[in-house]
Amino acid sequence: MGTLTMRIDERMEAELARLAEASHRTKSDLAREMLRRQIAIRRFEALRARAVPYAEAAGYLTDEDVFRDVS
């Protein structure tokens, strides 16, 4: 497992500490979860950007267009 050291401002540190205490988890555990989610969001956005031209060519211009054909 790798190690990441980062600096955060006092306000973020306090909020992270509050979240950790409220959820009975460590700050590191919360930071890992937040990073995992952000990475997943970025991957999704990249995949979506690659898929959009194909979807548009097939006539899918909005989310409603996709759901229209699913039902």
Could you explain how this protein is built, in words?
The chain has helices spanning 10-23, 27-57, 63-70. With 71 residues, the protein is mainly α. Helix 1 (10-23) crosses helix 2. The radius of gyration is 19 Å and the shape is elongated. The model has no long low-confidence stretch (mean pLDDT 93).
Summarize this structure briefly.
With 71 residues, the chain is mainly alpha-helical.
Secondary-structure blueprint:
Blueprint: H1 10-23, H2 27-57, H3 63-70
Helix pairs in contact: 1-2
Cα distance spanning the termini = 44 Å
The main pleated sheet reads as: none
Structural class: mainly alpha
Radius of gyration of CA atoms, rounded to a whole number:
19 Å
Q: How much helicity do the residues have?
A: over 70%
Helix-strand sequence: HHH
- Runs in which pLDDT lies below 50 for 5 or more consecutive residues are none
Query: Count of helices?
Result: 3
Total strand count, please? 0
Whole-number count of domains: 1
Shape by Cα distribution = elongated
Strand content: under 5%
Mean pLDDT: 93
